[in-house]
Design brief:
The chain has about 240 residues and is mostly helical. About 75% of the residues lie in helices and about 0% in strands. The protein contains 13 helices and no strands. The protein has helices at about 10-15, 20-30, 40-55, 60-70, 75-90, 95-105, 110-125, 125-140, 145-155, 160-175, 180-190, 195-210, 215-235. The longest helix is centred in the C-terminal third of the chain and has 21 residues, at about 215-235. It is elongated, with a radius of gyration of 20 Å.
Length: about 240
Amino acid sequence: MRRFFYLVSLHLLLAFSLSLAAQDSSSTASKPTAAQRNTEGAKEAEAKGQELLFQKHDTQGAIVSFKKAVKLDPWYGHGYLMLGLAYMQVQRWDEAQWAFEDASKVEPEDAQAWLGIGSALNEKKDYEGAQKALQRCLELKPDSAEAHYELGRSLWSMGKLDAAEEQTKRAIELNKEYASPHVLMGNIYLSGSDADSALAEFREALKLDPEGPQASSIKQTISEIEKAKAETKKNK
């Protein structure tokens, strides 16, 4: 049976590669005073990037603007978050990871930075690394449905079905309108050969996000499960 996940979507990280020289200054220099930073310039560049990303759907242009933001103020954590999000949209997982790691360096208590790291590492299939980042995210923000979902992905991919189920159910409890955890629950149930429960989860995911990027895959999976159930009933 086919297994699949949603590609990262805009809402995942909204609830939140610059130059080597800028990275070095972020990791080694003491934090400058507000007067020494160009935060206003960085905010203007970030606002331009958000306009390009969300209104004009110009991801490459947005990346340029977000890079400008963090160059103007290398301690502007939200600029790194938006840069990481933009890289996630074009599936440039390495750059996304680096951007989120830079965010975690300048704002180590920002749960969204750790969520971003975990999400990028999941896409890179570094599930153990993702698990560590996501556990840190949940230490900072225990009620993050996205972090519980992403941690469920990590655990399921490592074959830890019981732990994955626990995290995924928590994600559903926290956000009943969030379709992706239902897809993951369907996959978890399929791994345990519980076709009926899997079918219910896939149907719920489709109900919540009928026009989503994985809607056609969900429909096909539902069809496959129904066909298999019909064959089983016929052969009894």
